[in-house]
Amino acid sequence: MAFEHQWLAPWASFSDHSAGRLAPEEECTVRTVYQRDRDRIVHCKAFRRLKHKTQVFINPEDDHFRTRLTHTLEVSQIARTISRALRLNEDLTEAVSLGHDLGHAPFGHAGERALNRLTGDFSHNRQSLRVVDVIEHDGRGLNLTAEVREGILHHSGEEPPQTLEGQVVRFCDRIAYLNHDIDDAVRSGYLEYCQLPDSTLKLLGNRHSQRIHTMVVDMVRESRGQPLVRMSGPVARAMDELREFMFEHVYLHPRKVAEEQNLTRIIDAFYAYFLSHLEELPIEYRREPRSQAVVDYIAGMTDTFALTQARQLFPDLMTSVSRS
Fold it and tell me: How confident is the model at residue 248 (pLDDT cuts 50, 70, 90)?
């Protein structure tokens, strides 16, 4: 911790200034509180399940498509690079990065939208916080620090994180997914590189690595030596233009929308079934209210597990889905 005070910027988050944990614990003699949070996340079950959760393309056969796990690692790598350059707390940045998507439902944002439609109050960032606070360790949670929990909760949505490290993760989540989703969309045949907007390519670069490099360098240049995290106007606008392009050509592509509509039928069927068969949930999920228990169980499913379960429970539905 002495190293942090020697090296980090005055506006960084110092581990010995943490607001603490939900339940006080004896401190580790080797690791800072944020290092311990990172380790707890890496070793939890929800983190391991990310390898079989969709990023954009559902349960792809090609081994090179991104999953929630590879996305999470890319966010962590980019965020650590920026945090180090800005002399922020890399350990806090890494912990937030690794935990930010733990609550994602199966089938990506399609699953998230389905659960929100069914309950009126579901988002992956709130569910990620619920995973680390309530669900992991058989209901005991991971007992993370306030700064990591707050960064996980606000990595998306209207309210930004309070720490600069959390704000770095918020930026890097978008940097990572925009660039790797382009790669995966080309690999899947949804678009070709030549279709990308010329205006963004001229500023950001033609290749995956060039675009990420441009965004990272821009953030470091715009933020260095100041208690803030930001991008320059031109790069931020180019990023927004690229995001709009991806929504038009990939995320809202008719073929993809049709596939997601079929998959939401599976989520609907799970929700109705388990509300009436709570006894079939693993014992650690059997809690009140019943609707929350069912949501926790469904949100924790991987794509592969969800599809396997659906074939067993709803064979007729799965036959209909496969024909669509």
Answer: very high
Spell out the domain ranges in the chain: 2-323
Q: Determine the residue type at 51.
A: K
Show the 3-state SS of 12-70: CCCHHHCCCECCCCCCCCCCCHHHHHHHHHHCCHHHHHHHHCECCCCCCCCCCCCEHHH
- The predicted model gives 177-204 an average pLDDT of 92
Matching residue, tokens 């909760």: 153
Rounded CA Rg of the chain: 20
User: Is residue 256 over pLDDT 80?
Assistant: yes
Q: Which tokens belong to 218?
A: 């821009």
Q: Give the whole-number percent of the chain exceeding pLDDT 70.
A: 98
How far apart (Å, rounded) are the C-alpha atoms in residues 201 and 90? 30
Helix axes 303-313, 315-323, angle to 10 degrees: 120
pLDDT digits (tens, 9 = 90+) for 28-42: 999 999 999 999 999
Count of C-beta atoms within a 10 Å radius of residue 290 = 14
Whether residue 299 contacts residue 127, with contact meaning beta carbons closer than 8 Å, is answered with: yes
Which CATH architecture describes the domain 2-323?
Orthogonal Bundle (1.10)
67: β partners = 54
Q: What is the mean pLDDT of residues 13-37?
A: 96
